[in-house]
Amino acid sequence: MRKKVAILGSTGSIGQQTLEVIRKYSNEFEVVGLSGWENTASLKEQISLFRPKVAVVKNEYTVRKLKKDLDNSSDIKLLWGTEGLVKISTLEEADIIVVAITGIASLIPTFEAVKKGKKIALASKEAMVAAGELLVNEAKLRNAKILPIDSEHSAILQCLKNEQKDCIEKIILTASGGALYDFTETALKNVSIEDALNHPTWKMGKKVTIDSATLMNKGLEVIEAKWFFNIPVNKIEIVIHPQSYIHSMVQFIDGTILAQISEHDMKIPIQYALFYPNRTINNFSRLELTKIGQLTFKKPNFNKFPCIKLAYQALEIGGTMPAVLNGANEIAVNAFLDSQISFSAIPLIIQNTMKEHKPKYNPNISDILDADYWARERALGFCILE
Ligand code: MG
What we know:
Pathway: Isoprenoid biosynthesis; isopentenyl diphosphate biosynthesis via DXP pathway; isopentenyl diphosphate from 1-deoxy-D-xylulose 5-phosphate: step 1/6. This protein has 386 residues and is of the alpha/beta class. Helices cover 48% and strands 16% of the residues. The protein has helices at 13-24, 40-50, 60-69, 81-89, 107-115, 125-142, 151-159, 185-189, 193-197, 206-214, 216-229, 267-275, 289-292, 306-317, 321-337, 345-356, 365-385, and strands spanning 3-8, 29-37, 54-57, 77-80, 96-99, 119-122, 145-148, 168-175, 236-240, 246-252, 257-261. α6 runs parallel beside α11 and α14 (306-317) packs antiparallel against α15. Bound molecules: magnesium ion (MG). The site of magnesium ion has 4 residues, from α7.
């Protein structure tokens, strides 16, 4: 029996690579649902190749556009909006839900999939950042499994596979440093969009590439790690590792460090999540250590990149604060990409928004969505002032 997979965000970078993996293992997996939002051209190709039963786009208009493009023989069901996303994330027959939509839009479909007890391969870190506590508790209750596709968390999952939780001394998240790590503080004030999008080792979507340049990406991953592995925040450390071949490490109570090392290829963590807990052969390119020669490490500079500090703070405060951090960050990143604010204004806007928030503890899903909405409005206000 082939495993049935639904992919939310199939036309994005992770979505496309997930389909590449599935294509290589077409006798193990079949695609039952896809969502492509506005990219109907690419979604159309995916539909003709993978023949899902349901596809989701942004709105009624995009449904009509896609319908025109599809040949008449296609009996696919076309849906739209968040409701459509929830339909495919809770499809009765789906065994695995891959969530790879950018931003907070991933939260409701992920939460509903958890409530159905699904196996979820989560690439959208924003859902875990905003609502980690809620998602993890609900998953326990409903017997759902949330597996990371983020390369760092996949690395940690692999390092922890045969280990006892109480033997963990700390988690060491590696960070490439992003496009701007060696810029001086003065140079950081005049960073262009092109500079910030010029990531040294990974090709990714725009949002996560800017998050890498501010190092917020690593901050969000600290929060993600806390919830994925139930580790106190003071046991999660960040190390700058510019070559990004070590995807993360775990240090144990006997002084041993285990690391997961591989090529910069998201198909590796995607495949690991799809086949989890098994390992499967592939022909992706192999890392040649002798060609790399050396791996280097340095301490992160929290003062130059204050977004990391803000993420640790949000996690320590807890409740709805991480949702506010995430919401304000999404607004600030978009404003930077729209040339409305400078690069160095991104952390200021997040910090100002966090300062005004009164966190709610043990939040339910509507508390989190309210906090997210509030943070966006507030952050937008600060962007206009910039
Ligand atoms: Mg990552």
